[in-house]
Design a protein that fits this description.
Number of helices: 4
Oligomer: single chain
Largest sheet: 2 strands, antiparallel
Order of helices and strands: HHEEHH
Radius of gyration: 24 Å
Strand order of the largest sheet: 1-2
Shape: elongated
């Protein structure tokens, strides 16, 4: 049994995708988020995580303050985020040979 476009999750002509969706963020929201970053609050927090500094402190039953170090996964994620922002994400080389016309034909077949 051949599936039609709707059962495969594809849109038919004239139909709107993401009906009732939220769309792009409002300009004001973008500005607020950028201001937080420009104020260095978030960058300082990422640097703290990346350096492995203690991120929390708890007090035990005896009243001693116990530092809780940054988990390694959070530390690696923070390092990756800082590197991506500072130097950009590493490029990914794609190798191979292909025929553009063959690719276009394959795409057209899938939508017939």
């Amino acid at each position: 049994m051949k599936k039609n476009n709707q059962t495969r999750g594809l849109l038919k002509g004239g139909k709107i995708g993401n009906k009732g969706g939220t769309g792009r963020p409002k300009k004001e929201i973008k500005e607020l988020c950028r201001n937080v970053v420009f104020n260095k609050k978030l960058i300082d927090r990422l640097v703290k995580f990346a350096s492995g500094e203690d991120v929390h402190q708890v007090v035990n039953d005896e009243g001693e303050i116990i530092p809780i170090p940054c988990p390694p996964k959070v530390q690696l994620d923070a390092i990756r985020e800082l590197l991506d922002r500072g130097w950009g994400k590493p490029s990914q080389e794609i190798q191979g040979t292909f025929n553009v016309n063959t690719i276009i034909d394959e795409i057209n077949k899938r939508f017939e």
